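Input.
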Amino acid sequence: MPSDVEKDIQTLRRFVEIYCRGRHKEAEKSVYMGVELCSQCRETLEYASRRRELCPLDPKPACKKCKIHCYDPQHRERIREVMRYSGLHLITRGRLDLILHYWL
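Output.
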């Protein structure tokens, strides 16, 4: 069974993958952690994963509610953008799946 850290990193990976696929369609990509990412998104995922691994809090709160801000301002804004875009994508996709379920 995956640990909380592993689950959080899997979630980060999924969110960054959705963001990169939607926002960086034309960028050159390479495989990292099992997903195709551009260099900018790869760096974002590396940074966020490392921060999660080093988090001293247990249980870990949501980053926006945390009293220790371990992300530098540039990365904090970047991960917010990734989460906002990917979260909306998943909500929209989920609702479409639900609507199709009722119509079919």
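The chain has one domain: 4-103.
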